[in-house]
């Protein structure tokens, strides 16, 4: 049991208002802990606190009651006896009359009222007593914000958890709630008040209940908040958003049908508001209220609602239709939210009050006027702009109406579809099933575009209605629906009408006719099987027509795109609805014909368009994609054979396009689908089989066409999307071919002299190079768990290949060190190695630079980087600069793999780069300083080595699409960029201060790469230290056109700093230096983007404190005046904005 003295000390600490909040909180938690651990009972605590709870000292009494309430909050799950709960709730109920101790009383009541039955609850009679005391004693609106919030939470709890107890209070309860919520403005409290009214309405559902007498008064309180106008900017209010308040108010509006006489007129009034937010809220509230008030109550408002809805739709929809391939998919909800909400509400109202609403739509004068308008204009582009907008609106209204239900669909067909057929001059079939028209006459005349458009909207709605409720329609298929009869009667004429529009469009008229013709035929072809409107013959003719456009009219871009999109949609429809009767026709006419495009070499259609058609048709269905993949792979293998054996340049170009299509379209689709992994496995294996069987290899010149590059990309993506099991199969296959085809045995690689290995690499055949590059691609893409055989030899092979500048080998080596195990695993052979062993090979073998003075023996232990062959990069006399460059690039990719996994040996590689950037250790230069003027060629080469070392930092920290990313399963340690930035930047800053100008320029280039590729949020956290380096870098890099891209990237970082509030504060101290630098960059001649961004940065700086920037005002304005004559418009535009921003500083000065 707790010691009384200790307990008294805790109580005194909390009650004493002079104690710190931390001490008070600690005392509270200590008391709660004693109670939870049964070291103290609640009865003992109350007895101990009796003096504090009943004292006449208002402050002590308030603190004591609050302590008891807070303790109960922390005992929510601790079981308490009924008598104890009854005694406590009685005490707090009485204390509600003590306004000086009200907070503690509210906290205590809430804590007890929220308890669950498992731990003991407040009884119904006690809850009623709390409600009565609440209504009698609390004047809620006179309280502070926190007490009001507690009061509303208590009332909410009473209504939700004890509805039967408080419902008996009747009028007293409702009146008290009205009084307490009226005039509330705090967002947190408003959320509670709206919910209280919602719950109160559910408490009295009967129209004859007590709530009926207060409905008007309650709604007057609610109505003044609509629409929500949220202006609070306090930090504590940011948790409450405007949308939260709007939704809570909407639920209160729709909580009872008793609000209908007041809510609907208010919402219709606000629907005519000029504020888009008010319109949108009105529509959303109307939708919710419509569903909850019921059809009978809404019937009296139908006419007013229709009038307002129609006006909102007419005004909000786009003025012109979009004739794009994307819109062929179907009339999705408009991008305009108001129009979308209005049409959604329209559909719900039609379902709810079908006859009343249909009568209004059928008899509407505005809709009738549009029908009269389209009768006067044959061509869509002849219709006036305002009438186009209304035509679009009427089309969406008819679509929404017809789709709502079968009844509404029948009515639309009866009243509107027949009228459209009359405008088009189309006739129904006669009794023998033949149409009453001459097809040749119909084709020759131009159909009415407006009527065809409205027909399409109605047809589309009917099709969607069938698709969405096919089970319901199947059950009533024995009844002859009006829409079905009319569609079947006019479908032949409509088919010819759409063909007529399409044929007329091909004569060079407008996009509208092309779009209308294609979409109309598409809709007719995609009615579900039981409701198909066209015969199999007509369906096949439509397919043939679209395919002929793909084959012959590729120069007409819109027609070609629309036809391809339509074919894709038909294919998707066939697969989605299992149209087995149509699938053979689609496969023979579309898939086979389009697939033949991949094999026809002299066909007129450009090859990229052929592949676009193939990929779009393939992605429309699984069965089609399997066929397309099979065809594409056959084309790939056939053309690769020509490339390998005959060195065919035309085949090289074709296979390059096909492989790009395979990588960009097929593999991503396979990745999203299930059950296609075997396709990728077979693709990779077949590529390896073909190159294995190509003993006569003549592809050395065709690599200029990019064949090998696209092959490597396709191989990487295919392998990356395979499972570990499948990857092991591919790796083993590729390794077997590599080991049997390479110019020297892998097993003997580690035993040969470096010069001998390099000679053999130089003497390797082009076939060997292709095999090695493809193997490297496989290595890049595998999972870390995938086993690579003979790792030691593979590491050595990739190292030697680096000397020829094979970048993919360097990337593969980087991927290997990124994924190798840190420790030996069970089953590992002597030819395999761990990461540490691989790094020993890399760091100890002097394969990077051919140094005649170094030993060719392999050191078996790890030694310091300063003692290894890596020093040949900076100390080797007579070394070839190109080999140094290749070695640095190789080290960069290896270092990237280490850096991403967080391995410490990246520091050794980084130090090599830093040594290369220092003039004091420059390779092959120190003994030539006396004759430097006679040896400019060597100096240029040396500079290229230093530049490569600087650019190595971009490889280290930059993102890469070709390797070492999540797609290719790289091991990525979180925050690796941040750690590298914080480690390397102090080193670079220190070296810049010490070294001579030649080295400094390359150090600035290196630091620029680090700053550019580090996340901006990291740079912002260290802005004050980075800014000097960044500004010096901008100054130095602006001297050489070669650095323009790096300069622009660095300037973008400065722009990001200036756009951030914390960054502006850090830059403020260096404002003068920043302005000088930016002013110089406004005249940078080599890149427009640099001048434009410099102007934008100057605009951002104009927002700094007046005292900092006013002295530079004249300097900036003079630079801006010159920029106003810049030859590029983008720069002149930013110069105008900059002049306005800096000129306004004068007016700020006068005001100051």
UniProtKB/TrEMBL annotation:
Domain MMS19 N-terminal positions: 46-314
Keywords noted in UniProt: DNA damage, DNA repair, Nucleus, Repeat
Principal subcellular localization: nucleus
Residues covered by the MMS19 C-terminal domain: 672-1101
SUPFAM superfamilies given in the database record: ARM repeat (SSF48371)
Gene3D superfamilies for the chain: Leucine-rich Repeat Variant
Gene Ontology terms: biological process: DNA repair; iron-sulfur cluster assembly; protein maturation
Domain of life of the native organism: Eukaryota
Subcellular location: Nucleus
Alphabetized PANTHER family for the sequence: DNA REPAIR/TRANSCRIPTION PROTEIN MET18/MMS19, MMS19 NUCLEOTIDE EXCISION REPAIR PROTEIN HOMOLOG
Name of the molecule in the record: MMS19 nucleotide excision repair protein
Highest classification ranks of the organism: Eukaryota, Viridiplantae, Streptophyta, Embryophyta, Tracheophyta
């Amino acid at each position: 049991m707790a010691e009384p003295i200790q307990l008294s000390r805790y109580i005194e600490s909390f009650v004493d208002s002079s104690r710190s909040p931390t001490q008070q909180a600690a005392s509270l938690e200590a008391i709660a802990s004693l109670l939870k651990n049964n070291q103290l009972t609640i009865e003992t605590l109350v007895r101990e606190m009796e003096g504090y709870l009943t004292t006449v000292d208002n402050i002590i009494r308030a603190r004591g009651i609050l302590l008891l309430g807070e303790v109960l909050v922390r005992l929510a799950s601790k079981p308490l006896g009924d008598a104890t709960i009854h005694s406590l709730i009685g005490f707090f109920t009485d204390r509600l009359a003590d306004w000086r101790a009200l907070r503690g009383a509210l906290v205590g009541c809430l804590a007890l009222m929220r308890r669950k039955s498992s731990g003991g609850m407040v009884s119904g009679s006690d809850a009623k007593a709390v409600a009565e005391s609440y209504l009698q004693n609390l004047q809620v609106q006179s309280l502070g914000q926190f007490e009001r919030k507690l009061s509303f939470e208590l009332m909410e709890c009473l209504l939700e958890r004890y509805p039967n107890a408080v419902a008996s209070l009747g009028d007293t309860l409702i009146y008290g709630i009205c009084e307490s919520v009226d005039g509330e403005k705090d967002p947190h409290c408003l959320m509670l008040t709206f919910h209280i009214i919602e719950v109160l309405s559910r408490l009295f559902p009967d129209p004859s209940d007590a709530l009926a007498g207060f409905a008007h008064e309650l709604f007057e309180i609610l109505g003044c908040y609509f629409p929500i106008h949220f202006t609070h900017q306090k930090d504590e209010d940011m948790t409450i958003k405007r949308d939260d308040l709007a939704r809570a108010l909407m639920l209160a509006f729709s909580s009872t049908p008793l609000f209908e006489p007041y809510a609907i007129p208010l919402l219709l009034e606000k629907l005519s508001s000029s504020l888009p937010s008010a319109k949108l809220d009105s529509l959303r509230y109307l939708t919710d209220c419509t569903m909850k008030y019921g059809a009978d109550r809404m019937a009296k408002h139908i006419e007013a609602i229709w009038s307002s809805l129609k006006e909102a739709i007419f005004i909000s929809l786009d003025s012109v239709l979009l004739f794009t391939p994307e819109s062929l998919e179907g009339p999705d909800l408009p991008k305009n939210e108001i129009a979308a909400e209005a049409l959604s509400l329209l559909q719900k109202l039609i379902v709810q009050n079908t006859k009343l609403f249909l009568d209004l739509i059928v008899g509407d004068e505005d809709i009738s006027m549009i029908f009269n308008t389209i009768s006067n204009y044959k061509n869509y582009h002849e219709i006036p702009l305002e009438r186009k907008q209304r035509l679009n609106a009427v089309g969406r209204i008819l679509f929404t109406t017809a789709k709502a239900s079968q009844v509404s669909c029948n009515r639309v067909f009866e009243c509107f579809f027949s009228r459209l057929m009359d405008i088009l001059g189309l006739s129904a079939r006669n009794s023998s099933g033949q149409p009453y028209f001459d097809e040749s006459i119909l084709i020759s005349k131009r159909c009415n575009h407006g009527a065809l458009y409205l027909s399409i909207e109605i047809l589309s709605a009917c099709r969607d209605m069938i698709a969405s409720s096919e089970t319901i329609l199947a059950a009533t298929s024995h009844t002859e629906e009006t829409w079905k009869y009319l569609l079947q009667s006019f479908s032949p004429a409509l088919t010819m009408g759409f063909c007529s529009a399409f044929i007329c469009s091909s004569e060079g008229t407008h996009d509208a006719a092309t779009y209308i013709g294609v979409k109309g035929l598409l809709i007719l072809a995609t009615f579900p099987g039981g409701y198909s409107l066209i015969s199999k013959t007509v369906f096949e003719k439509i397919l043939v027509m679209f395919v002929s456009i793909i084959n012959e009219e590729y120069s007409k871009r819109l027609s070609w795109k629309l036809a391809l999109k339509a074919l894709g949609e038909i294919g998707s429809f066939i697969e989605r609805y299992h149209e087995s009767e149509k699938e053979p026709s689609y496969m023979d006419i579309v898939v086979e014909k389009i697939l033949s495009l991949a094999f026809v070499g002299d066909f007129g259609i450009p090859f990229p368009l052929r592949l676009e058609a193939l990929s779009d048709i393939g992605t429309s269905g699984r069965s089609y994609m399997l066929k397309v993949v099979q065809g594409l792979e056959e084309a790939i293998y056939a053309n690769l054979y020509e490339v390998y054996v005959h060195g065919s340049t035309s085949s090289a170009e074709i296979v390059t396009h096909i492989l790009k299509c395979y990588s960009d379209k097929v593999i991503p689709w396979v990745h999203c689908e299930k059950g296609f992994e075997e396709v990728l496995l077979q693709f990779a294996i077949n590529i390896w089989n073909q190159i294995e069987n190509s003993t006569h290899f003549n592809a050395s010149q065709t690599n200029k066409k990019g064949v090998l590059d696209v092959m490597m990309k396709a191989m990487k993506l295919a392998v990356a999307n395979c499972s570990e099991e499948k990857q092991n199969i591919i790796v083993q296959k590729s390794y077997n071919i590599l080991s049997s085809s390479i110019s020297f045995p892998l097993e003997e690689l580690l035993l040969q002299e470096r010069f001998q290995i390099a000679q053999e690499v130089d003497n390797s055949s082009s076939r060997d190079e292709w095999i090695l590059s493809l193997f490297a691609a496989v290595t890049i893409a595998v999972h870390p768990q995938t086993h690579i055989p003979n790792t030691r030899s593979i590491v050595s092979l990739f190292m030697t290949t680096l000397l020829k500048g094979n970048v993919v080998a360097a990337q593969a080596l980087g991927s290997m060190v990124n994924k190798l195990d840190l420790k030996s695993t069970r089953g590992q052979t002597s030819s395999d190695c761990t990461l540490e062993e691989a790094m020993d090979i890399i760091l100890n073998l002097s394969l990077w630079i051919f140094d005649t003075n170094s030993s060719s023996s392999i050191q078996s232990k790890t030694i310091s980087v300063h003692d290894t062959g890596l020093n040949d990069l900076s100390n080797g006399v007579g070394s070839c600069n190109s080999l140094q460059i290749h070695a640095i690039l190789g080290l960069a990719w290896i270092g990237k793999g280490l850096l991403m996994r967080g391995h410490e040996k990246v520091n050794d590689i980084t130090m090599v780069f830093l040594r290369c950037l220092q003039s004091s250790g420059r390779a092959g230069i120190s003994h030539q300083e006396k004759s430097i003027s006679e040896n400019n060629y060597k100096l240029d080469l040396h500079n290229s080595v230093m530049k490569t070392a600087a650019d190595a930092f971009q490889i280290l920290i930059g993102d890469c699409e070709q390797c070492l990313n999540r797609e290719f399963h790289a091991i990525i340690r979180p925050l690796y960029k941040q750690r590298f930035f914080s480690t390397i930047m102090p080193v670079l800053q220190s070296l810049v201060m010490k070294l001579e100008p030649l080295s400094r320029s390359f150090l600035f280039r290196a630091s620029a790469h680090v700053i550019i590729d580090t996340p901006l949020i990291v740079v912002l956290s260290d802005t004050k230290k980075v800014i000097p380096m960044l500004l010096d870098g901008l100054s130095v890099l602006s001297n050489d056109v070669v650095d323009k891209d790096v300069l622009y990237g660095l300037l973008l970082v400065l722009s990001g700093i200036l756009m951030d509030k914390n960054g502006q504060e850090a830059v403020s101290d260096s404002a003068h230096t920043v302005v000088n630098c930016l002013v110089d960059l406004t005249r940078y001649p080599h890149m427009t983007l640099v001048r434009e961004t410099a102007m934008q940065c100057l605009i951002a700086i104009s927002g700094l404190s007046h005292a900092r920037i006013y002295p530079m005002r004249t300097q900036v304005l003079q630079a801006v005046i010159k920029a106003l004559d810049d030859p590029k418009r983008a720069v002149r535009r930013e110069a105008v904005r900059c002049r306005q921003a800096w000129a306004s500083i004068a007016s700020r000065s006068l005001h100051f």
